[in-house]
């Protein structure tokens, strides 16, 4: 008899109500894969893009979700013991294979990172993709070093808040933007030393605080603010293009010698599970458990509230990471 599970299925692009909760067969697991009982999953902007039909990745019908957190049920290849706590992320999840918006998910073993923690699943569910992206943006993207200055463009997003937390841990001076003055306290609580109200033209404001320009910047808003972010950055500084909160992905009529300030470096970051070392995940979870680091969770939703969760994500109604628990 086929074992069933509850899953959130997207038959094609649409609004939040296109996400349908259904009973579907539990996925089979083959050697090289890991079957995970999902306890919680975080919401990500790329899932919003996928639901809206933006970009060229993925196919329908599909269970969305580029990450999930839970417990190993089976790993036929022996990569992980049953009962191991894991985060699963990327590797085609929610795009070319069914993803984490379900009670169970079967993923490549290479997409799984193990950890041990007594934190609640609602907390753990916020971490994998958010930490992978923030850690990679700081290390691979910006190569941030203690004492550096860091500008986060799009600071009240989940990645922006995670960058602030990691930046503070690494001994950086953190500047971060928000369009909403009422959210300044959220940024300060995450470790931001200088909150900048973003009116679309902040380079001069940044240089009032750091006259030579910041040594590194992470661009999360996207192409509409990229040019201004580059101009807030010092000669030999680095801007890492990581996010597209604006949903604008390309620069029209890009002319590099005019667009790029002299000596300012532009790079990008998008990572996989292999870019989140298990020791980095474990260290961060331990720091959260001890109170040495804060976790920017905006709101936790029940599985049945997925439409409301996506509505809030689309409207930017909540600052911080949105998490859904499965039970």
UniProtKB/TrEMBL annotation:
InterPro entries: ADH-like_N, ER, GroES-like_sf, NAD(P)-bd_dom_sf
Keywords annotated in UniProt: NADP, Oxidoreductase
Domain of life: Bacteria
Gene3D superfamilies linked to this entry: Medium-chain alcohol dehydrogenases, catalytic domain, NAD(P)-binding Rossmann-like Domain
Pfam families named in the record: ADH_N, ADH_zinc_N_2
Ranges for domain Enoyl reductase (ER): 14-324
Span of the signal peptide: none
Keyword NADP attached: yes
Annotated GO MF terms: NADPH binding; oxidoreductase activity, acting on NAD(P)H
Protein name: NADPH:quinone reductase
Species: Desertihabitans brevis
């Amino acid at each position: 008899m086929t074992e069933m599970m509850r899953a959130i299925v997207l038959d094609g692009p649409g609004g939040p109500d296109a996400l349908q909760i259904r009973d579907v067969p539990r996925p089979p697991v083959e050697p090289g894969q890991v079957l995970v009982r999902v306890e919680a999953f975080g919401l990500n902007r790329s899932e919003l893009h996928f639901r809206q039909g933006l970009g060229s990745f993925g196919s329908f019908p599909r269970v969305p979700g580029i990450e999930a957190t839970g417990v190993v049920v089976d790993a036929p290849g022996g990569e992980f013991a049953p009962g191991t706590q894991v985060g699963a992320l990327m590797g085609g999840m929610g795009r070319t294979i069914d993803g984490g918006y379900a009670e169970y998910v079967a993923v490549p073993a290479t997409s799984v990172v193990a950890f041990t923690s007594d934190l609640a699943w609602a907390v753990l569910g916020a971490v994998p993709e958010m930490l992978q992206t923030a850690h990679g943006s700081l290390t691979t993207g910006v190569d941030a070093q203690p004492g550096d200055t860091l500008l986060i463009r799009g600071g009240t997003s989940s990645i922006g808040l995670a960058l602030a937390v990691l930046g503070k841990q690494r001994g950086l001076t953190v500047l971060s933007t928000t369009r909403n003055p009422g959210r300044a306290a959220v940024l300060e609580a995450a470790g931001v030393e200088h909150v900048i109200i973003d009116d679309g033209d902040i380079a001069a404001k940044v240089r009032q605080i750091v006259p030579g320009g910041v040594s590194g910047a992470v661009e999360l808003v996207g192409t509409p603010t990229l040019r201004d972010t580059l101009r807030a950055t010092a000669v030999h500084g680095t801007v890492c293009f990581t996010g597209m909160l604006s949903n604008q992905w390309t620069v029209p009529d890009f002319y590099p010698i005019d667009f790029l300030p002299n000596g300012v470096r532009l790079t990008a970051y998008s990572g996989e599970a292999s870019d989140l070392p298990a020791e980095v995940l474990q260290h961060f979870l331990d720091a959260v458990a001890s109170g040495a680091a804060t976790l920017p969770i905006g709101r936790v939703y029940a599985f049945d509230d997925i439409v409301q969760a996506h509505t809030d994500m689309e409207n930017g109604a909540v600052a911080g990471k949105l998490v859904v628990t499965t039970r």
